[in-house]
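Hey, sorry to bother you again with one of my protein questions. I've been staring at a protein lately and its backbone has me curious. I owe you a coffee for this, so here goes:
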Amino acid sequence: MSLAVIGMIAGMALGFAGYFGGFGAFLLVAALGAVGFFVGRFLEGDLDVGDFFRPRDERRR
């Protein structure tokens, strides 16, 4: 599935949540979508948890 299709589905989900549930539901769906995105990237191996805790001036070797 292409990234454009995934983005379209995510946008539609946020639109439905905003229309039927209000702004609070919109924020909840957006936050859970972001969490799901990061968990998916972590499980695929594209994201390293150590990147969040490493100081900025330390360079990878």
